[in-house]
Structure formats: structure tokens, C-alpha cells
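user: can you give me the structure for this one chain? C-alpha cells are fine.
assistant: on it. calling the predictor now.
[tool input]
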Amino acid sequence: MTPPRLAGSYLVLETTNQCSLACVHCTVAEGTTHPHHAQVGFMAEEIFSAVLDDLARVGAQFDTLIPFWLGEPLLHPSFGALYQAGLRAAATHGTFRRVELHTNATHLGRDRVRVALNASPVPQTWHFSLDAASPERYRQIKGRDSFAAVEANLLAFLDERARTGARWPRPIFQMIVGENNADEVGAFADRWRRACAARGMPVRLAAQNVPAGEEAVVFFRQLDAPTPAEQLRANAAYRAAMARMGVDLPRPTRTPEAFAAEPGVCSCFWKSPVVGWDGRVTTCVRDNRFENALGNVRDTPLSELWWGARMRAGRAGVSEGRYAGFPACSNCYIPRSANYTDIDRAEIALWG
């Protein structure tokens, strides 16, 4: 059976776990003491290509390709080739509806801008992870004094996009809002709305989910915290900041508080496989220690790992609220966050 395409599904291909910053909310800040960063490297082009070829072979389709996880993708020496391969898979085989990149823009130089700006039939969004409106707060959150350089890179990118009239990528100026930066949301919004307006680019504000369309977005995303108690505080800070800005929050099917009491069915087991830079596969981006590791695409095709017997059995248990065999799920905070992607019984039933 050809795997069904589910709304909100995405494939994460970690092009690298190496980063140019050390954000306080990211495992990179822990350095080599975190097992995900004990060894750093770049995904081999043959791994990236093999995954795409395998998905085309079985007719698999995801809503989104995300060539990013716990590193800065623009650092990859073959970034352009990988990005183009993802676009070809989307355009030729329908493997993806869109491509979504996340970058801190420290390495958004002219060569990367040339890769970025295009007129492909495949929709593309680039999330510029900025998180601050001042150099001081930027340094506190991002761990480096790169505020001025990043702003210069982004303004040059916007200038070139305006000059060329390129359709893609859609720029998303992202701020992950927590207790440490909620007071800067107004200044952040003003900065990037003015930058777009000065170049004749339509721009809007949004929270929690990026709305459909092609205009630029100043996007406020909620922080995913490491414990349930911290998550509830982050939820409250986020909601208060959005209320001050007058930005509407989409109404979730279940509130984070409801998930805290009864987590229920996790959509990750159906919608979001993750392939690390070294080929290891796990069930979701929360599992940065690979405690739920399914295998390695160097040895077994992704289609077998993700739709094979072990995951079929695992999904049967998860659909009934049982997570045996998946230790990373024991303390997961994502279902308690507004960033959670839901799944319903009709979608589960599509998998038999």
C-alpha cells in the first residue's frame, strides 16, 4: 500500500548538527556533554539522495521537507546541491508539497542567497530564527555577538529579493517567545515590518502557525520547555505577549493543559520521521538522544524503518495510549505545547 499523505506531515533531514550559535533553548548550548553533539558532522549527499529516491520508489508523500534539525543548514558545504535535490523530489515526484528551511542567517552570504532566490513551482519558506530585538538580548539568548552581522545579512537578502522579484522563498522572521524575551515582541515586530515595507514587500504578523499565502511574516512561535511545569509557564508568557500585541492564537483541538492531564495519541508516530545527519532514524524531533531509534538508513531504507513491522506494532500501541518500547516518550513536553500537531482517528485509520 502506498503510504497515505497526512495533513501536517513532514520529514526532517538533519543536514548537519554543527551550529554557529549556542541558543539557550537548544541542545547545542550543552556542547559535547549532550550525546547529540558528542560528534558533529554533515549528512553525506548519498544519504540525502538515497532517502529521496526511496520515498519516490514507494510513492510516499509528505506535506513538507525540513532539511534542518539541531544545526545550521547553511554551514553544509554542499547545501546548494541538497536543497536543489529536495526541490526536484517535490517537483518531479510529488514527494513534498513544500520545503521549509530554518536558519539563523549567520551564513546567509551571497552564495546562499543565490541558492535561496528562485521561481520553482514548489512553495518554499525560510524561517530566520532571530529571537531578539536588541544586541544585548540576542547575545543572552543566542550565545554569540552576531546581531549586527545577522541583520546585515537579512537586509542584503531582502534587497536582492526585491531587486530580482524572486517568488521564493517566503521570508519568515521568527521569534521563539519565552519568559526571557517576551518584553521585546513589539520592537521585533516593528523592526521587520519596517524592513519589508521599505522594500515594497507585503508583511503580516502571525502566531503559533504560519498562515497560508506568500507575503512575509513576522512570526511568534512558542518556546518548547524541558519540563511540564516550565512548559505551562512558557505557555502563559506566550499567551500574554500575544494578547498585548493583539495577535490571535488559533484555537487548538485540545489545550496544552488538557494534554498535561492526559497526553493521548502522539501524532509524531504517523506524521514526522526524523533522519539525523549520520543516518539514524527516530520518531520525532523531541528525541534528540535517539532513545526511540528505529535504525539507520545506511543499512535499511527509510520506507522499511518508518512503515515496517516494528512501527506498525508501535503505532497500534500508541493509538491506545501505550508507549512501550519508546523511552523518549516518558517525559515528552511537546503534547503540552501549542506547537503540537494533532491527529484524529480517521487519519490513524488510513494506516490500517
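assistant: here you go. Strands lie at 10-13, 62-66, 96-103, 124-129, 170-177, 203-207, 216-222, 274-275, 280-282, 295-296. The CA atoms of residues 90 and 96 lie 5 Å apart.
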